[in-house]
Amino acid sequence: MKKEIIRDVFFLGQKSEEATKEDAQIIEDLKDTLKANHQRCVGMAANMIGYRKRIIIVSMGFMDVVMVNPVILQKMQPYDTEEGCLSLDGVRKTKRFRKIKVQYLDEAFQPHTQEYAGEIAQIIQHECDHLDGVII
User: Is 127 an annotated catalytic residue?
Assistant: First the structure.
């Protein structure tokens, strides 16, 4: 179900809890909400739609990838950039890394460890910040 985007900075500033298989509906809500906002959004964290659970979804062009309980294991090649967010007004400066290595569960709760680079790595970092209550 498509959900409203949360803009409450207090809520967004709270750390998210580990997700479990009982949180499967959140995954479907994230998919529906990202699809409804696809023209202005390339990723989303569960807290952006009202759930303090460690689940993100990232648009990778040809498909949307769900990451449950993602952990960034490695960060390489730092750079400074600016980002916007559906939950916030305007753009803000932040530090990102060109390459990252992430460990996560897919939507079937199967484990993966994957390296990402460029824009996809930046999106994942932005959404993982959401999970940690970091507001750029």
Answer: yes
